[in-house]
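Just wondering, does anyone understand these tokens?
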Amino acid sequence: MNMYKQPFSVLSAVLLSVFMMLLPTAAQAQERIRLATQSWPPFQMVEEGQLKGQVIERVQCALREMGQPYELHLMRWDRAQLLVETNQFNGFFSGSPNSSRARYAVPSAPVVSVPLSWYLAPNVELDVTSEVAKDQARYGAKFNTSKWLFLAKNGYNVVKKPQDAEALLRMLRNGDLDVALEYEDVFELAMKNQGVSPQRFKKIPYKIRDLSVHFSKTFLHQRPNFINTFNAALVQCIKSES
């Protein structure tokens, strides 16, 4: 079963039923919130039939501390965002802030902060942010993410629409791209999975990005104290890890 492509996974219901049994009676009376996410190793993924990863664990910890019943649904990233934009879900995670998401959602405190880097194909030498390179080099990032939209909106020559980091890496390996923009943790895991040495590509650090849960503005209007309570619980969960 390809969990990534399931819009509403059976796993979500299993996790919910287990979680609900652990909640106090008062919390069970609360309305469940519905959060959408994607399979995105190493931050959030399915292993041995269970949702795992640092982001999953931190989001679940915060909701548990709040006594907040919830559902987690695994689906395509574009669908996850659309369902929040159309108020069918209460939030999605994890993603960086951008102007498109800001129209309909509010980001939580960072769930995780990760380095974002440029990766150059072998034998490619250029200043990745120069105006000349923007026109002449072939750039890529995972399609329909903030990274891909950043490249497209800022005049970079975006030539491919990879659906995941594995596909992005294959395009860079095969010479279909000159430059890839991706989070280091994600791309290095893809390299490990494909048996590629990290030394094969020149890495140029770009910036550190905060990844958050994005809650629907409509939902937050109905529950104005929710995001502050969630943020406080999330911060406490992260502190407890050290």
Summary: The chain has two domains: 3-112+211-240, 113-209. The first helix runs from residue 10 to 22. Residues 111 and 140 are 25 Å apart (CA to CA).
